[in-house]
Predict the structure.
Amino acid sequence: MKKLLLAVLGAVAIASGAFAGTETYYGKEMKPLPCPEWYADREFNVGIWGTYVFTGTDWVNDRYLETDHAWGGGLDLKYFFCRYLGVGIEGWAVDARQAHEDVFIDFSEDIFERRIRHENNTIGSVLGTLTLRYPIPCTRFAPYIFAGGGTIFGGGQRTSFVLTTDVEEGEENDVVVTRRTGSETAAIGQVGGGIEVRFTPHIGWVSDFSWNFVDGPNNNFGMARTGVNFAF
């Protein structure tokens, strides 16, 4: 019994000394392991994401999207010269359910009709981008900011009022109707920021928000994106 008690006390004393002193492994000091590298100094990124856009004003005042909001998706390609700086190109498209006024006025018959028409149009954009990111050391997280510029297309239709002459039963009546122009291409600028979370050094999840500027303050819109990023 005494031998068993002495053996237990000895084991406790040895264990206490081991935890109290410098951490050792087979008689040598253990060095801390280096942090895993989730982001490389040079890497090519391919991002695929869904997007939601919303206008900065009501659709009646917007002159490009002509809708309060729209859903779509996009793709971006980036090359990082170092882990902090990258350049790239992005493209996206949304399905915009545009609204516009349709007016009919017949002065001879005192007829005035006004209604809101809806039509779906695809609006898209292609931009060059510059990205600054900061991979937080020893974590999977990398907040980033970005800016870009390019072109946007598919929107910008205009509604105009046209005075015409309607001949009916030998009588000429002055009638006002609305006409719609086709879409136009415009310049677009973009600034934003977001964060990426890496599941592996080659697969991550990105979420960001940007504000986009299109030909005047009434055409500005916000864009929220989220999707998968692949790093090579």
In short: The longest strand covers residues 111-133. The helical segments are 2-20. Residues 1-27 have pLDDT under 50 and may be disordered. DSSP finds one helix and twelve strands in the chain.
